[in-house]
Amino acid sequence: MLLNKVQLINRTTLGVVLITLMSSCAKPLAKYAYQLDSEVLPSKITTTNHSDEVDEYTWYVDGEKVSEEKDPEIILYNSGRHDITLEVKKGKKTNKITEQVILKAPDACLVQMLTSKGDMTVQLFDETPLHRDNFIKLASSGFYDGLLYHRVINGFMIQGGDPQSKDAKSQQLGSGGPGYKIDAEIRPNLHHFKGYLAAARQGDNVNPEKKSSGSQFYIVQGKPVDENTLNSLEARSGIIYSDEDKQMYKELGGTPFLDGQYTVFGKVIKGIDVVDEIAKVKTTPRDRPLEDVKILKIIPIQ
């Protein structure tokens, strides 16, 4: 009986050893599924990881590392064919799997504005090509990376794009730029509705041609506007608002008193709530946020 008991213990121990050896010899297997929210940019890829025997995960897009999460969400901004690779690791052993996605460029000119308060997708208007192309040029060069929304007025607008605001300690911001101005492109059909993008500029006393700052911009928040106010503005300024314009100001809101004075060259088409989040931050008497609100990056979608 004693011998049998010893043999039983040895077999159990051997079984544990064998299981351990098999486990340590097992090769990790990379498997995942994904879902595209759109075949047209910008596109979000939601991943679901089904990998087995894995300790570490690394995700790549076209060979560039993007995440070490198990199930990341990946946003793509460039059209064409993309390789989405998952590399898994257990000990010194690795395994990879690659899936391909093909994405189409949007019909409109779009940029993704990443901020410390959230992200916005912005359409740039073809009716204002000088401002559109300049904004794309600056964004592509990284000019806006790390700059602040240095002037914020709740119920009015949020303003950024001053290169002097990067890591700025001074309260005196708003005069910086890339060293040039842009000719005005004020269009009678482009108004200051909520979420619309416009170029900041110096006042008429030193800038009668209404030329725009080379880099500073603002996004309108504004407030709902009634028809009587718009009728009064029409009488004073000569601007004609269509029934659709009046409905937009009534429902969406905006700052119509700026119409005809500044170049409007884009609009937020996704993430309008981010404008409200930025607009409600606490500010100094000079309208600078007490807590820095940063433009992390502006990415052209193409």
Summarize the structure in words:
With 302 residues, this protein is an alpha+beta fold. The protein has helices at residues 2-25, 129-141, 227-237, 243-251, 272-279, and strands at 32-36, 43-49, 56-61, 64-67, 73-76, 80-90, 93-103, 109-115, 118-124, 147-153, 157-160, 181-182, 196-199, 212-213, 217-220, 264-270, 294-301. It has an eight-stranded antiparallel barrel with strand order 8-9-16-13-15-11-10-17. The protein has a four-stranded antiparallel sheet with strand order 4-3-6-7, with no helix packed on it. Mean pLDDT is 91; it is low at 1-23.
Structure at a glance:
By secondary structure, this protein is α+β, with helices and mostly antiparallel strands.
Strand-residue proportion: 25-35%
> What's the tally of helices?
5
Categorize the overall geometry.
elongated
Low-pLDDT stretches are 1-23
Radius of gyration of CA atoms, rounded to a whole number: 28 Å
Distance between the termini: 79 Å
What's the number of domains? Answer: 2
Which structural category do the helix and sheet elements fall into? alpha+beta
Task: Give the biggest sheet.
Answer: 8 strands, antiparallel, barrel
